[in-house]
Design a protein that fits this description.
Layout: H1 2-10, H2 17-30, H3 39-46, H4 52-59, H5 65-80, E1 86-95, E2 105-109, E3 114-128, E4 131-139, H6 143-147, H7 150-156, H8 167-180, E5 187-190, H9 192-195, H10 198-207, E6 210-215, E7 220-223, E8 228-231, H11 232-237, E9 245-252, E10 255-265, E11 272-278, E12 285-291, H12 298-307, H13 309-321, H14 332-356, H15 374-385, H16 393-419
Parallel strand pairs: 1-5, 5-6
Antiparallel strand pairs: 1-3, 2-3, 3-4, 6-12, 7-8, 9-10, 10-11, 11-12
Helix pairs in contact: 2-3, 2-4, 2-14, 3-4, 4-14, 5-14, 8-10, 13-14, 14-15, 15-16
């Protein structure tokens, strides 16, 4: 079974058989149908009387979460690797009560779209046409409320070597680690929080990795062979109608995401562009700074820009399917261990989905069920590990086919509606 392969890959990271067995039970619990995937619930799922073994695994057992992260990263690439891979950086928030959890403070995160009491994790995702997975993580440590408070750091178990780093710097560290580990990726993409950072862009250029990074409309760029400095939205307002081309940024839940796109050469280099996206209905604009080591097409830049949403899908799946945000731990080590195991569970589901996908050289017929998704595979695994009474394999597979057939029907309906919309 593929889960056995996952455990075999990380088994050497646990020096004793007890934490190794507990790690396997923890992973099985994350893949189960347990509603809240915290230590108490996972212990009950594993048949333990108390959560002690799960809590020891996250806090005191001797194993290196970064080493398991390395195994996870290699596993994801082995199963999802394909040409045109994109690395995506983004952050997500974890709502917490109190002030003892490592890195927690009142801060803004796009998770809620407002200021709340959050821990913020910066993540790196790997995306190809075969699938996507989270492959690295960093817990953001606020400078004033944490980095300069030795007592608070000590209580939360934050190592002395960990110092303040901006979110773009954390992203750059993860990208560098992935590339140094031999990960092959042609592109990096991210939102404005990362696109606005010149140090991140320079670091990517130094590594010869192309990027398509979102920036604000007020970003100033140089046009006319670098002679004129002008705001990005001013550039967009001066473009003739012929400069815009319609492209899809990929398929969404309700069909192809078609936008109007334009690109403008900026700076003095030959492969540097301002990419502009225009909503067909509202006219809303979005802007991206782009660089590549070689010449590329507008369609390729659009593809990379559209891939950024893959990490949002990873966050949604990780939180809803494998309990990424269900932890009840405060310690620095415990956070990294839970997050790493949840990422490994998600990568396993993504690998199963990729292996189960139909041959891309033989397109599915329009009336076929949708391919197995991460939520559907997690649902099936939960039923296999703990089958309901009177549930046979045939009934389980029949139910899956029925759900996927109805999902395919709904998707076709959405696609027809979207394609029938008037141009914006």
């Amino acid at each position: 079974m593929m889960l056995g392969q996952v455990m075999a890959r990380i088994a050497g990271r646990f020096g004793r058989v007890e934490p190794r067995a507990t790690a396997r039970a923890y992973l099985l619990g994350l893949l189960s149908g347990v509603e809240r995937k915290n230590c108490w619930q996972l212990a009950e799922q594993a048949g333990h009387v108390r959560p002690g073994p799960m809590q020891r695994l996250l806090r005191y057992a001797r194993w290196d979460a970064d080493a398991v992260r390395d195994d996870l990263r290699a596993y994801a690439v082995d199963h999802l690797g394909a040409d045109g891979a994109v690395l995506i950086v983004d952050e997500t928030g974890f709502v917490k009560k109190g002030h003892a959890s490592a890195g927690v403070q009142r801060q803004y995160t796009g998770t809620a779209g407002r200021i709340e009491n959050f821990q913020v994790g910066v993540f790196l995702a790997y995306a190809t046409e075969r699938g996507r997975a989270l492959i690295d993580r960093r817990l953001y440590l606020p400078e004033q409320s944490w980095c300069t408070d030795p007592g608070r750091r000590r209580e939360a178990g934050i190592p002395e070597a960990v110092q303040f780093a901006t979110k773009p710097r954390l992203a750059a560290e993860m990208i560098t680690a992935a590339l140094d580990a031999g990960i092959s990726a042609a592109w990096v993409t991210g939102d404005e929080a990362y696109g606005q950072d010149p140090h991140l862009r320079l670091a990517l250029e130094a590594r010869g990795i192309g990027y398509v990074l979102a920036v604000a409309c007020s970003t100033r760029v140089r046009i006319n062979q670098g002679r004129t400095l002008v705001r990005a939205d001013t550039v967009a307002g001066r473009l003739p109608a012929t400069a815009w081309q319609r492209h899809s940024a990929g398929h969404g839940a309700k069909g192809p995401r078609h936008y109007d796109w334009a690109w403008v050469h900026i700076g003095t280099g030959s492969h540097r562009h301002l990419l502009i996206r225009r909503n067909r209905t509202t006219g809303e604009l979005a802007f991206y700074l782009c660089w590549s080591p070689t010449a590329v097409t507008l369609a390729e830049l659009v593809r990379v820009a559209g891939t950024r949403w893959s990490i949002e899908e990873c966050f949604q799946a990780a939180k809803s399917q494998v309990g990424l945000d269900h932890y009840q731990v405060r310690h620095w080590t415990s956070w990294h261990r839970h997050i790493t195991l949840a990422m490994l569970a998600l990568a396993f589901l993504a690998a199963v989905a990729a292996d189960a996908a139909p041959d891309r050289h033989h397109p599915a017929r329009s009336n076929d069920p949708i391919s197995l998704t991460v939520p559907e595979i997690r649902h099936l695994l939960a039923a296999v590990f703990h089958p309901p009474a009177a549930m046979t394999t045939a009934r389980l597979l029949h139910g899956s086919a029925w759900r996927r057939q109805h999902q395919a029907t709904a998707r076709r309906s959405h696609y027809r509606r979207r394609l029938g919309e008037p141009a914006g």
